[in-house]
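Marked as duplicate of an earlier ticket. Keeping the data here for the record.
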Amino acid sequence: MAWVYLFTAGLFEVAWAVALKRSEGFTKFWPSAAFVAAMAVSLILLGVALRSLPLGTAYAIWTGVGAVGTVILGITLFGESASAARLACVGLIVAGIIGLKLVSAE
């Protein structure tokens, strides 16, 4: 169950990153409120996952899921570059996430 909490925490990290972008420097109320709420949920779920997962593994996977999701949404929502080199680098992050999961004791 800890892995489910961790992955969900990563998804909420994506949500707060997008809300942060949409808040335009905290000048828009609802995106700013969404940022605070998503960040709180993300950190709470990370904390729950850390009860049974190793710190280094959990943190790396949490940030990795957040990074990959944020890149994907940056491309789809904000028209950011989807160059082959950029996607290859994202693929390396995904490979690292999978590798950490496979070698983890939990």
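See parent ticket for discussion. The first helix runs from residue 2 to 22.
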